[in-house]
Amino acid sequence: MIIGIPKEIKVHEYRVGMTPASVHELVAHGHTVLVQSNAGIGIGASDNDYRHVGAEIINDANDIFAKAEMIIKVKEPQAVERAMLREGQILFTYLHLAPDPEQTKDLLNSGAICIAYETVTSPLGGLPLLAPMSKVAGRLAVQAGAHCLEQPQGGLGMLLSGVPGVAPAKVVILGAGIVGTHAAEIAVGMGADTWILDNNPDSLERHWRQFGNTTNSIFSNKNSLEQHILDADLVIGGVLIPGAEAPKLVTREMISQMKKGAVVVDVAIDQGGCFATSHATTHAEPTFMVDDIVHYCVANMPGAVPKTSTYALNNVTLPFALDIANKGVTQALQDNPHLCNGLNVHSGKVTHKEVARNLGYEYVSAQEILK
Q1: pLDDT value of position 178
Q2: What pLDDT does 242 receive?
Q3: Residues in the chain with pLDDT < 70?
């Protein structure tokens, strides 16, 4: 199979779809890998590093899209990239379609076979291709929030940890999943007064077993949510419904009643965000203010640490990429129901139930379309 690795073009996105080590594996299995020039510069990988493992370096993204049977990326294809996709071509990347009708429309019109990292599942449960970026984003959320609490950034002017004799900041984390767990670990390590809210008793039980009384775990309902949001200095939103738009847990009214200079970090922004006032931002302009509340809503947070993020991502994406390349996409999807759960769009049809429901498309099951 001919596999294309274009340079990411989203604003301030420095990750790359495949590391040289991953390319080496694909080449060793007899596949041709086309890498756009300077695609790996953000992770410190030169064109020569890719040549050394057998990749062919291509200067123009148009040539990669024209020649490749499978495109492997990190972020969702931008409009100019979507225009280059063709019928039957495989796209393997993060998509986050539920809050993005324009992208969905373009992918359907392209006739491409689009597999989304974020909805591939695991035999053990969970989302194995989303998990590494959730870990990175959860940890970064606390770093970003601590920075935004500084007064020059519009924040309260608080040190997250406090100092002897001065109370630490109150950090409220929405969701005890992977994002929430990793955010809690960093918040606790930095000395914050850390609270985590979730409406799943099993998740709270797992959290309590991991953290004990170093955090405060609270069952989330309207009353507890409002109480802790209004008392918080920093709120981190890490809720997720696989494939679907994130629920708007925090209302505009709650935002208006928060402490002036408090900070919200919306890690769920890729799926539309869990704060009613959120809209996606970039690393170039990461924050905005609503009712004197600092909003940090960068849609590609892990792109700020591309070396860590790319290698963590490739650890989990490479086996699936190899399977698709070795077997062909139809056989790979038929053989692996967990990879098949990642199929969002196929030949002009929406094949993920939540995406279809959110955007008003007819849902066609992957099993039906693969026949």
Answers
A1: 95
A2: 83
A3: none
Q: Strands 343-346 and 293-296: what pairing?
A: unpaired
- Residue 60 known to be catalytic: no
Q: Which of 100, 106, 233, 270 is catalytic?
A: 270
Would the CA dihedral through 53, 58, 64, 66 be positive or negative? negative
For domain 2-119+306-370, the question of CATH label 2.40.10.10 is answered with no
DSSP letters for 52-102: HTTPEEES-HHHHHHH-SEEE-SSPPPHHHHTT--TT-EEEE----TT-HH
Q: What is the pLDDT of residue 371?
A: 84
Interval 141-195: pLDDT, tens: 999 999 999 999 999 999 999 999 999 999 999 999 999 999 999 999 999 999 9
Report CA torsion sign: 62, 64, 69, 70: negative
Q: Among positive and negative, which fits the CA dihedral 282, 284, 285, 287?
A: positive
- Tokens encoding 113: 């076979």
Q: Where are the alpha helices (DSSP H) in 190-236?
A: 201-211, 222-231
- Which residue is catalytic, options 96, 207, 295, 346? 96
Tokens of 324: 């698709």
State in words which class domain 131-299 has.
alpha beta
**Catalytic residue flag (residue 346):** no
